[in-house]
From TrEMBL, chains A, B:
<keyword id="KW-1003">Cell membrane</keyword>
<dbReference type="InterPro" id="IPR001851">
    <property type="entry name" value="ABC_transp_permease"/>
</dbReference>
<keyword id="KW-0472">Membrane</keyword>
<feature type="transmembrane region" description="Helical">
    <location>
        <begin position="79"/>
        <end position="96"/>
    </location>
</feature>
<protein>
    <submittedName>
        <fullName>Fructose transport system permease protein</fullName>
    </submittedName>
</protein>
<feature type="transmembrane region" description="Helical">
    <location>
        <begin position="171"/>
        <end position="194"/>
    </location>
</feature>
<feature type="transmembrane region" description="Helical">
    <location>
        <begin position="130"/>
        <end position="150"/>
    </location>
</feature>
<feature type="transmembrane region" description="Helical">
    <location>
        <begin position="264"/>
        <end position="292"/>
    </location>
</feature>
<keyword id="KW-1133">Transmembrane helix</keyword>
From TrEMBL, chains D, E:
<dbReference type="Pfam" id="PF00005">
    <property type="entry name" value="ABC_tran"/>
</dbReference>
<dbReference type="GO" id="GO:0005524">
    <property type="term" value="F:ATP binding"/>
</dbReference>
<dbReference type="InterPro" id="IPR050107">
    <property type="entry name" value="ABC_carbohydrate_import_ATPase"/>
</dbReference>
<dbReference type="InterPro" id="IPR003593">
    <property type="entry name" value="AAA+_ATPase"/>
</dbReference>
<keyword id="KW-0067">ATP-binding</keyword>
<keyword id="KW-0547">Nucleotide-binding</keyword>
<dbReference type="InterPro" id="IPR027417">
    <property type="entry name" value="P-loop_NTPase"/>
</dbReference>
<dbReference type="InterPro" id="IPR003439">
    <property type="entry name" value="ABC_transporter-like_ATP-bd"/>
</dbReference>
<feature type="domain" description="ABC transporter">
    <location>
        <begin position="19"/>
        <end position="262"/>
    </location>
</feature>
Amino acid sequence: MSAVPVSPPEKTSGVMAKIIGVPSAGPLLVLLAFGLIFAITNPRFLATHNLSIILQQTVIIGTLAIGQTLVILTAGIDLAVGAICVLGTIIAGKLVTSGYDPALSMAFSVLVCTAAGFAAGGLISGLRLPPFIVTLGILGILTAALRLISAGGAFPVRDEFLGWTGNTLRLGGFIVTYGVLLMFVLYALVWYLLNETKWGRHVYAIGNSPEAARLVGIPVRRHLLSVYLLAGFIYGIGAWLALGRIPNADPNALQTANLDSITAVVIGGTSLFGGRGGLIGTLIGALIVGVLRNGLTLAGIDPLWQDLVTGILVIVAVALDQLSRRKG
Amino acid sequence: MSAVPVSPPEKTSGVMAKIIGVPSAGPLLVLLAFGLIFAITNPRFLATHNLSIILQQTVIIGTLAIGQTLVILTAGIDLAVGAICVLGTIIAGKLVTSGYDPALSMAFSVLVCTAAGFAAGGLISGLRLPPFIVTLGILGILTAALRLISAGGAFPVRDEFLGWTGNTLRLGGFIVTYGVLLMFVLYALVWYLLNETKWGRHVYAIGNSPEAARLVGIPVRRHLLSVYLLAGFIYGIGAWLALGRIPNADPNALQTANLDSITAVVIGGTSLFGGRGGLIGTLIGALIVGVLRNGLTLAGIDPLWQDLVTGILVIVAVALDQLSRRKG
Amino acid sequence: AVSFAFTGQASAEDVIVGLVTKTEVNPFFVKMRQAAEAQAKEKGAKLIARAGKFDGDNEGQVAAIEDLISAGAKGILLTPNNSSGMLNIIKKARDAGVLVIALDTATDPADAVDATFATDNFEAGVQQGAYARKALGDKTPIVAMLDGTPGGTVDTFRHDGYLKGFGIAEGDPAIAGAAITNGAQDKGQIGMENLLSKNGDINAVYTINEPAAAGAYAALKSFGKEADVMLTSIDGGCAGVRDVKDGKIAATVMQFPYKMAAMGVDAVVEYAATGKKPSGFVNTGSFLITDKPVDGIESKDTAWGLKNCWGD
Amino acid sequence: MKTPAPLQPIPSDSAGIVLEARNVVKRYGHMTALDGVDFELRAGEILAVVGDNGAGKSTLIKALTGAVHPDGGEILLDGEPVHFKGPLDARHRGIETVYQDLAVAPALDIASNLFLGRELRRPGIMGSVFRRLDKKRMRQEAERSMAELKFRLPSITNAVEALSGGQRQGVAVARAALFARKLVIMDEPTAALGVRETGQVLELIRAIRDRGLPVVLISHNMPNVFELADRIHIMRLGRRAAVVSPKTHSMGDVVAIMTGATRVEEARDPGV
Amino acid sequence: MKTPAPLQPIPSDSAGIVLEARNVVKRYGHMTALDGVDFELRAGEILAVVGDNGAGKSTLIKALTGAVHPDGGEILLDGEPVHFKGPLDARHRGIETVYQDLAVAPALDIASNLFLGRELRRPGIMGSVFRRLDKKRMRQEAERSMAELKFRLPSITNAVEALSGGQRQGVAVARAALFARKLVIMDEPTAALGVRETGQVLELIRAIRDRGLPVVLISHNMPNVFELADRIHIMRLGRRAAVVSPKTHSMGDVVAIMTGATRVEEARDPGV
Ligand SMILES: Nc1ncnc2c1ncn2[C@@H]1O[C@H](COP(=O)(O)OP(=O)(O)OP(=O)(O)O)[C@@H](O)[C@H]1O
Ligand SMILES: Nc1ncnc2c1ncn2[C@@H]1O[C@H](COP(=O)(O)OP(=O)(O)OP(=O)(O)O)[C@@H](O)[C@H]1O
Ligand SMILES: [Mg+2]
Ligand SMILES: [Mg+2]
């Protein structure tokens, strides 16, 4: 619902063309503006340690938002992102705790996540059900299944391999985790897929006009299936990153991941109507959310007021983006 | 995201025309089917007392879903429904507790809710921001504001007038609350607006194609504003109904009302892309959710399994609806 | 008004015990439900459990009680989200002849229900705070508050209790900042990280529960501060007690959800059989668990804690 | 918003220029769609606007009706400058337009689309107080209008998206004809129409003119243009290349000007 | 999915019937859009399909290309029955179609739309292993194709939604011409085109025929039809009313059959 219904096409269309493939400058400017304000408010904000913390805090939602972007570009929506990711942590955790090989366990759990994506995609493309309902249903099913599997409780996952993504390394004075690097690698790969391959072109085409895509001979259903499948795979990798950050498999974790990831996508300038937007915007969108939360705490804002300020700033962020586009 | 992207237009379009204005038979059949199954599982399900309970449980979400339907028909989405409704309960509660006249307090609080809707509509139509972001921002702002107003805690609201909607009356062996009646009245009124007036016609037109609406001379922005305004008003009435059901003003209440109301709308057959669907479907959608929850409890299903079964049944419900349309 | 409540001599198999917890999200309530299930099975009763969807879901709890009355429950065990919101429906249930017992959280007024089996959460908070203050010794305290959900009854009691036990008031400059965790580990971690970025001298951390404490520990560790900070919590889950044993959490205050649940089920079964109702407030108790006891504060060690903890 | 009864022409200085544009400029990014266009529509005439694809015809009429905001120049209605904030303003002044992309709501039925923004209310209290739509009358009117254009329609309650391309265009044309009170602008109204239906629309255009309303007709169909037009406004590369009379110029002349084969100095109104 | 190189015609029995439909029926609810249509397209010919609006022309070609599933009848390609599950199957068999509603992705640029579903990959390992698109070559090809149709285009990187109606149609026509290997179907390809551009497309159609590919041309423009067509298939009320030769029948005859003024017994192939 980002393609603003009331705007005459003349105002947006010229820029839309540029957004596809080319990073949208709007969200980036907003990110920099917020960063500047927070840096002025509290010099600690720019401490390398703090910046690296923000990146780490962005890892999970940032990664899940990659899959969410793909789904939203096809004019779908995924409410099961968090649940699928948690499924991954619990399965990997259970297997390792039962003595299986960590790498195999993780691989299997990524496979299960991919299968969950496949199931969603199958219902959506095969039975032509609305993505909202299918992923909502899967969310309910998984929520229950996760609690049943883990017998209701969270359990710690103490394994070198599963926790590896949380290990840090120094990159020129900057401390990052392997998880952060992996997230960037994922962004780069999926960006390539979206912008440099046929597959990505067809994602945009389907989101733009499923009927046109069908008529020119794009196998729309199979393609949708592949999108949800890839998204599921990404959520599986997200599970590994989540275990690196929190070595704990908790059936109740990530409850707000669906809304959070959609928020990152929308702040990043991708339209909920599909076919318009891009992945770099999403990364920036996820960072904006992380920067807001961190910056407001550093500014010493009471947590009660933080929600309020965040609410205002999210609107301001998108308004600024919108404004920069109209001028652009 | 209900207009299934992969379906060739030939399959849906014929029926779409019928859905507008005419209640969709699909959701109704699903509702009856579920009712039948539960009645067989547990004869208590059909007890008039139980049926009247289900109606009462549907009042809040059912009412909020009216506003949500209006917003979604314009291709928008409202994440602030619950927050605005809670705002209404807290303002009315505070005023009455401070000794103001109950009727005036309630009226004022409905006015504040209307103003909140107006603010959302103003940002969306005036600045052309995506409804998702605007209502998400307002959700954050209100969440914080509510906690600040109520000093963090919930407080009881014991007032005859504010609680009036919870009073019961007998209608031929059937016990209903005034709240249930009021909800039905709201449905009837808004149905009339949507289907029998110019205003409603224009809601559909804008949802269908905002550009076409603009070109034929519909004042799209002003109309959008009126939609969010009316929605806000309805959420205000929802606050009164909520107080009748639970005489308590709690800043943490109704957190899932946004998702729940959207679910009712989508199960009811309205497209998240706007312009297609109707209000009667929404009522049935809300009832389906209520019947599921009640019926599963009466069937003695473990709560862990309830989520799972609900997840499956929601998908089944929409699949059946989809199926009935294809045949229709 | 009692037309739908089956009275008379019900055999044990017919007894339906309703349990309505706050959420399914919190392991505390999950364990409570599991304990109630086990106890019901043992007593030959049938347990139907329901929960709200989130902290503050009054509507969900009201609907659950209504459904349970419809289902013919003999007694309902309730952990009210917000007691004032439940008063009407509790009255309705009791009028219909259903025994209503509050678990974990008392109602306001307390005599709205037949009986209350609960911990005193304020007292538990005091225990946590008093220990933390004492254990800090003569260091100047700089406190971070990792709260649950603002406005929740339990959340407020624990928070206020901690401050009382710690000997400071709300707004004291010793409080370096607060974060909302919703009792979740990931949000606990994020909140702690950001608070540490803001003030690296924090030396005492209040946590609403053990998952939040686990998150806080991870953050402290990444800042290399895990040894210098007095991290305390409440709950008494086995995972939490293990964290105390491992030295991650300095102390936690144990509660007894199993006990509450079992007592509740017993009372309903007894009521079904004999018509006898329990009454009043039964404090199921809370104990400070730590391996580093301080003078003047009663505590048990983790060996005892692991024997009596809930979960696993 | 008072809707005057249809078919009640708004009078204008019958000898003068009804709608005029002076030096209108419209840019889309780096692309200059209108590069200082002049335009005059006289009372009672049919003015054809022709030009290559992309010459700026549609942009010009959008600028005239407020559907896009020009970056420069001015627009005058009955000699006085107007600033249409949107198509609604133009409609209020009695200008009806068939846009090239038709401006229909796909999921709404034919009657609803025909009366979109101009819905009829029930007579009496039901209409004035309860604001109830007169669906039956709108349906009947729609049936009549479409029948006049001799369309074979499946059913008047069909959604517009279930119509053939030509049928959909028929709806847009019928709508403009039904409500115009001042002037009518039609952007390629017969592009998708069959032989018979095209004839019908040409007749309709004549009938509108005979009702006293001037008509702007954009068309690529030269025979039609020469059959109907009183004057021909030729667009080329975002400018008006010439205005000619079909009486003084041949189709070949017009095409030559349009494609740039013949150069003309900045076209002067031939004053036919 | 192997994409054969463009412009490599798929041979077919040069004397015979390339594409045939027998007794095809298509209903939309109560509406019978196709009421038992027969259809034959012969090798190397240009077959015009004409008829009133709503006669069923577009539905017929959609049925032929798998875009809609007929309720009855059969379709034969090179004499053997085919069941296209969707337009993709038809495309795989070398059939290219310009649909009346163009089938373009509005937010994608001209080159992307031209190559939609037929994207070119880089040569060498970048293409075969890394599957990288050859954006530059697609852009150049697109520029060339559009230039051939003599369109004045703002920029080849423009989104299609920012094009004029005629320019958009040009993209769809260029696409079909670029990829056809067996036969080409064009549903009103010149409806929105200017005089010059129409001439260009008519020439293109002839060039395609001269490449040996038969062409189905749906058009309301009788002069164009008579200029190009080898045979004329006349639709009326969802049936084939007649197939005539432009050599034996006049425009008047065709229009008369089309509108029902002249009755013909179930049309037999004149076998021109
Ligand atoms: N929304 C837009 N954004 C960018 N450029 C546009 C937009 N609309 C039109 N243009 C460009 O402006 C020029 C004029 O377009 P216009 O639609 O006015 O042409 P036209 O004369 O109506 O052509 P046609 O006969 O094909 O309808 C074209 O080159 C087109 O690409
Ligand atoms: N999706 C649909 N649903 C219902 N009816 C349809 C649908 N598509 C077409 N029709 C109907 O089928 C009939 C034939 O339509 P078709 O598009 O084939 O006509 P056509 O000959 O191509 O007309 P035109 O010259 O106007 O393009 C029309 O009466 C139309 O209303
Ligand atoms: Mg045009
Ligand atoms: Mg057609």
